[in-house]
Amino acid sequence: MGKIVQQDILEQLEQLRQDAGAALAQANTTEATREWYAEYLGRKGRLTGILRNLGSLPVEERPLVGKVANEVKVALENAVQERQNAIAQAEMEAVRRAESVDVTLPGRTQTLGKLHITTRTLRDIYAIFTAMGFQIYDSPDVETDEYNFQLLNMPPGHPARDMWDTFYTTTPGLILRTHTSSGQIHAMREYAPDPIRVILPGKVYRYEAVDASHESMFYQVEGLAVGKHITFCDLKGVLINFANQMYGEGRQARFRKSYFPFTEPSVEMDIDCVLCNGKGCPVCKYTGWLEILGAGMVHPVVLENGGYDPSRFSGFAFGMGSERMALQKYGIDDIRYFYANDMRLLERV
Ligand code: PHE
After folding, report:
1. Do 180 and 186 meet the contact criterion of CB atoms below 8 Å apart?
2. Would the CB of 223 count as within 6 Å of ligand 1?
3. What share of the chain in percent tops pLDDT 90?
4. Which stretches within 153-231 are classed as H helix?
5. Are 41 and 17 contacting, i.e. CB atoms less than 8 angstroms apart?
6. Which of 213, 219, 236, 262 has an alpha carbon 20 to 30 Å from 311's alpha carbon atom?
7. DSSP E strand stretches across the chain
8. Residue to mutate, 181, 185, 236, 325, ligand 1, most ligand atoms under 8 Å from C-beta
């Protein structure tokens, strides 16, 4: 290699400036600009390599080379700084674009579930009675013949048992309750001789031929009040208040005489049809009235079986079918829809 002269070094610096400039234009990431810096301006980079030869130049030639080298260095440092800023800017812009929301796109519908009509009806009933001071009392679905019939004044062989088609089990004396009235005895035996005001909701089971108005499982809500000086007026007041809240203020109500072994006297309560306002329609079978529940004054034998002295205590009881109420309230024409899980009904009501 010949003697190094000032011209060579100046040419090398110029070459460096061009190479570095071109390479920088290709660096598209922050990482790439760091590698670029190491290659051209770093401690082991090309600029340092060129300046290592400075010592072999005559002293008077050195300042010019130093000045040019410094200019190249400053120019490249500015360039890389600028490049890094631009890259950072672009990276931020990319993030912003990726995370941005296009508010002009149509929204995605959220399909919300909702409570089953039976649950809603039961909750409506609970709210009305709890506001009147009734507590909710739970009693078993699987019952004994004793609680479901005998203690309710229906000894074995009593003809009124035919009012309830019963599911028996293979265990003698064990049945599925046919009505929530069996819970009356549980509640009385738990609280006697204290006064009681309870409602007893739950499933009941009937060995029925299933059709538009009969299911083999449905819900009832029983009511029971026992205390001193409870009269039929209390029964009427509570039930009329209930009907007005459940079906809307101003309902007409009527009580028809009826028969249940566990109440005396017994009645059935009708309200004027909520769909036709008493004019007559298919839902009320053109009578203008809807039967909503059975009720009566608790029979003295039942009070006694529950642990109350019937000469000092009296009470009333009622029982209503909640699906029947929902059928009437929402104008559904078939009880089988309730548990068939057909979305068309579940969405409609
Ligand atoms: N348990 C009766 C039924 O299922 C209804 C009822 C309850 C009647 C309480 C009177 C008193 O038909």
Report:
1. no
2. no
3. 68
4. 182-191
5. no
6. 236
7. 135-136, 142-144, 174-176, 196-205, 217-227, 253-260, 263-272, 289-298, 314-321
8. 181
DSSP state of 57: S
Q: Two tokens at 197?
A: 């005001």
Q: Is 202 in the pocket of ligand 1 (CB under 6 A)?
A: no
Q: Scanning the structure block, which residue is given the tokens 């579940």?
A: 346
Q: Is the pLDDT confidence value at 2 over 70? A: no
* Separation of alpha carbons 166 and 75, rounded Å: 100
Tell me the per-residue pLDDT of 29-51, one tens digit each, with 9 for 90 and over. Answer: 889 999 999 999 999 999 999 88
- What's the pTM value of the predicted model, to 2 decimals? 0.71
Across the chain, mean pLDDT equals: 92
The pLDDT of residue 304 is 98
Q: Which atom of ligand 1 is nearest to the CA of 319?
A: 7
Residue 150 clears pLDDT 70, i.e. is over it: yes
Instruction: Report whether pLDDT(101) > 80.
Output: yes
Give the 3-state secondary structure percentages of the chain, helix then strand then coil, rounded to 5: 45, 20, 35
The reply to whether ligand 1 has any atom less than 6 angstroms from the CB of 338 is no
Find residue 135's DSSP bridge partners: 198
Spatial contact of 28 and 84, defined as CB atoms under 8 Å apart: no
**DSSP state at residue 61:** G
Q: Which residues of 16-25 are buried (b: 16+ CB within 10 A; e: fewer)?
A: bbeebeeebe
On whether the CB atoms of residues 220 and 322 are closer than 8 A, the answer is yes
Q: What is the pLDDT of residue 1?
A: 44
CB-based contact 192:303 (threshold 8 Å): no
